[in-house]
Each structure stands twice: as C-alpha cells, then as structure tokens.
Amino acid sequence: MLLVSDPCLGPEEKAALADVIDSGWITMGENVRLFEHTFAKVHDADDSVAVSSCTAGLHLIMHALELGPSDEVLVPSMTFVATVNCVLYVGATPVFVDIKSNDLPLMSLEDAAAKCSDRTKAVVLMHYAGYLADRSQWCNFAAEHGLMLVEDAAHAVGLAEAGTYGAAAAFSFYGNKNMTTAEGGAVIASGERLRERIRQMRNHGMTSGTFERRSSATPTYDVPMLGYNYRMDELRAALGLVQLHNLKAWNEKRKSLTQLYKELLKERAPEVLAPFPQARKSAYHIMPIVLPEKADRQAVINGLRAANIQTSIHYPPVHRLSFYQDYLPSVNLPRTEEYSARELTLPLHPKMQEAQVDQVTRALADALS
Predict the structure, then answer these.
(1) Catalytic: which of 177, 248, 262, 294?
(2) Per-residue pLDDT for 113 more than 70?
(3) 369, 362, 361, 355: which is closest to 289 by C-alpha?
(4) Per CATH, is 11-242 categorized as 3.40.640.10?
(5) 262 assigned to active site
(6) Is there a contact between 254 and 350 (Cβ–Cβ < 8 Å)?
(7) Average pLDDT for 87-97
(8) How far apart are CA 87 and CA 67, in angstroms?
(9) pTM of the model
(10) Residues 183 and 233: beta-carbon distance below 8 Å
(11) Which CATH code, of 3.40.50.720, 3.90.1150.10, 1.10.10.200, 3.40.50.920, is assigned to 247-368?
C-alpha cells in the first residue's frame, strides 16, 4: 500500500534515542533546549518553545494572550479540529470563516472582515497543505481591526516565513508531518516576554524545572501562574534534532513531487483541479485535489485502493462535525462545504519516487473514467 504519509525514520533516529536512554536523563533537559535553539534557527527566529503537541502550543498561545469568555476568535473550518478546540479551551467563542475558493482553500479575507464584531479579539490563520496565507494582507487586516494574529503552522514546518505574521505560531511534529517526533510541537512568539510566559506555562507555571533544580543549591520553586503539563521530553527532542537536519531536503523532495503531480494531472486528468495553481511559498505538506463536481468520490477512493494506493480527506469541515453542529448549529460556509465534499488527498512524502506519482495519476485517471 502506497501511504498518504510515511515518516522517514532510520538508524540515526535509533542512535539518538539510544544515546538519551544511555544518558539516564529522559525528561525535559539539554536535548530539548538544543532542539528549541535549532528549530528557531531554521525559522530565522530568536528562540522557540518545545511542547508536547501543536494543540498544546495553540492552547498556550491563547492562554498567554489572555483570550477569554467575552472574546471572539476568527477561525477556519477547513482545518483539523484542534485549531478550533483551542479557542474553546480558554472559554472564547470561535467564529467560522469560509475559504476563498477551490483554487485557494485558505481563509477568505472578505468573509473574515464581514464577521468581525466588537468582541473579535484574534484571528487564527491556518497554512493549509503547507501553503502560506498572504502575509501582508492579513497583517494589514489584523492592524486595521485591532486583532491579535495567531498562526496554526502545523503544515508549514521548515518555512522561515511561518511564525512572522503576528503574536505567535504553533508547529506540529505529529507522525504524518514534514518532520516528526511522534508527538510534539513548538511555538515561535513575536516577543521575549510572550515566549517566556509560554515557556513557563508549559511546565505547570513553575519557576524552575527538574533539570534546573538538579544542579541548583536551591531545590525549591514557586508557581505564580496557571500552567499545564505540555512539556517535550528528551527522547522526542533527540528525534527532532535528527529530523531537522534532513527537513530542508525532504521539503525540496515534496516540492518536486508536487510539481510532477500537477504536470501529470493536467495531462491525464484535466478535469481534476489541483489547488494553488499560482506560485506560493509552501512546505508541500499534503497533495490535495478537487474532483469533478459529478464524480463519485467513494468510487474513486475504492479504485485507488484497489491499486494499493491510500487516500485521505483534508478535512471534514469542523463546523459540520457533530460537536460543533450542536454548539453552533446555524453556521453556513458554502465554499468550505463544497471544497470538502470534492477534496481528495493523494500520497505525498519524501520516500516516494517519481514512478509512484506516475502510478497514482494513472490509477486516478482510470478510477475517474
């Protein structure tokens, strides 16, 4: 089975894990700190905060920005549910924003503007499929409306521009991402004060961690703020350091495979739309396509699976999930709903070869016919 995603793990990762185990120190320590510095350098940032997941990072950002029950936050529905859940975690109200179009399945600036109110305090941009939202337009929008801008950069690891839009950005290292620590994430914040507040919050709000107290003559600590257990451990950090070393080459491979996909799709299945036809900065996290309006998506999925090709859907709209239908039953996002009903995600990862892209596009053409 050719998988939609397949993590690149090998002897270097095994050796890194063994080194941590042999060291005798497996909780947050020197590897985590080195990973934070290295990750920040890749993204042209001063520093970063390693956390247990991208979800944890988004929650910490919302909490550190003091969003709460009286506030509204503009969010996409074309995203993973965690993007929106984190707004509820702090008691704020998510306000769903439609996408621009099937060509450009990123949040619509026009719909966002129409949904601003006196209670709107922040907007969460999600760089869907790894393609960056327009920085200047969204920064101007946030400034004009007095909003804090947060990036869900789960799909955009390795892009230096990600994390530069506003208050802070959260990244994901889940097993299907461009680099992985199995579970894990990181936060890049715009200022030292916000970053250090997030750093303290990820460790129960404590003024010192276990590793710091190990070599300190004063083994006491204080808790001056509400915090959480959102730490990254040494094992994951060691994995991340190895993965970071290969990230640039892996993203370049994703780019070349994506370009080949688009060329072959145009030739073999011209009725299929490949979003983002115009040049745009991307980490090429996934390969989404939009099937013809009258195509039977399940039949296409079955046809590809019969050819040993896995597919996926990114994403079922968050506002149509059962919990959010009950919570906000009147939401109507026609462009998001149409895109989601016709979207299909094809395999894309650095282990793939050009011959496999050829295989997928031929099988897709056959399934459509």
Answers:
(1) 177
(2) yes
(3) 361
(4) yes
(5) no
(6) yes
(7) 98
(8) 8
(9) 0.96
(10) no
(11) 3.90.1150.10
The predicted structure's pLDDT at residue 217: 62
pLDDT in tens, 156-203: 999 999 999 999 999 999 999 999 999 999 999 999 999 999 999 999
Structure tokens at 235: 């094992």
Q: What's the rounded mean pLDDT across residues 204-223? A: 80
User: What does the alpha-carbon distance between residue 347 and residue 369 come to, in Å, rounded to a whole number?
Assistant: 20
Q: Where are the domains of the chain?
A: 11-242, 247-368
Would you say the C-alpha torsion 16, 22, 24, 30 has a positive or negative sign? negative
Strand partners of residue 126:
152
Cα separation values, 117 from 41, 314, 364, Å: 38, 29, 45
| Residue 69, pLDDT score | 97
Tokens 């990973």 belong to which residue?
Answer: 35
Of 121, 119, 99, give the one whose Cα is nearest residue 110.
Answer: 99
Query: What is the share, in percent, of the chain residues with pLDDT greater than 70?
Result: 99
- From edge to edge, which strands make up the β-sheet containing 148-152? 49-51, 185-189, 168-172, 148-152, 120-126, 72-76, 93-97
